[in-house]
Amino acid sequence: MTPNTPTPLSRFRQRLAVLYFGQTSSAVRFQLTLAVIDLAIIAFFLFGPYLRNRPSYLVIDYLIAVWIAAELAAQLLAAPRLKRWLLRPMTWIDVLILLTLLFPTTFFSFAFLRATRLWAIAQRPIFRVMLKRLGQSHLADIIAALINFVVFLFTVTGFVYTFFFFGENGLAGFVDAAYFTVATVTTTGFGDITLPGTAGKLTSIVTMIIGISLFVRLAQAIFRPYKVSFACPECGLQRHDADAVHCKACGHILNIPDEGD
């Protein structure tokens, strides 16, 4: 084997990179399969509290743990640089989710982070590729903002349920946690359900600040004029009107590709 001959491992890494980040037919099918599996995992997490008493629950739980561990390993191999992989927020979220699956008793307090698996779908290249192929690229920012908002609601609901309402029987505790979260995020503040103590007040403050910010971001994505991502070669401005001819920051002539290009 000559020095320039790629090793089996390097060829495997290149193949994974194409599948994870490419836009070929095989890459699109691969990414769609991952997205479907992500949705199935999220559904299991949402309905998990009602399935705990079934003997198949632990089997599915550990199968998901094996899947997430395998995908973390595959993403590490496909990543062009280790630093880039380590700096991805989803990497560390998946590690925490994996720990909650493998050691549910020890890491029970972090189980609410399982809702953040929704982000995995929004971060996959297939998300924007499919919208572009459907001619709906302008919906990408709206859907991403909506996913962020929904993930935040589910994550805060899970956190509030875990630390404040877990002692309630049946569905009542989760409903109370969801009710408190929505009332706080919308600043309705009925006051019939409140969180006790200093920790409860701090939780309410953080929920209101971040929730309102995400809600405003969603409203901006829906109502602002559609812009495309295209870096100005002169000043580097990233966002422009879809039909822009000149950069509004420096006046440089732009050549923004059409959707079909």
Main beta-sheet strand count, sense and barrel state: 2 strands, antiparallel
Oligomer: single chain
User: Total number of β-strand segments?
Assistant: 2
Rg, alpha carbons: 22 Å
Number of helices: 10
Instruction: For the record, give the distance between the C-alpha atoms at the N and C termini, rounded to a whole number.
Output: 41 Å
Helix content: 55-70%
> From the helix content, strand content and strand pairing, which structural class follows?
mainly alpha
Strand order of the largest sheet: 1-2
Which outline best applies? globular
Question: Strand-and-helix sequence, N→C?
Answer: HHHHHHHHHHEE
| Strand percentage | under 5%
Low-confidence parts lasting 5 or more residues at pLDDT below 50? none
What is the count of distinct domains?
A: 3
The overall average pLDDT, rounded, is: 79
Structure, explained:
This protein is mainly α. The protein folds into 3 domains: 135 residues; 83 residues, Helix Hairpins, CATH 1.10.287.70; 34 residues, no CATH class. Helix content is 62%, strand content 2%. It is built from 10 helices and 2 strands. The protein has a two-stranded antiparallel sheet. The radius of gyration is 22 Å and the shape is globular. The two termini are 41 Å apart.
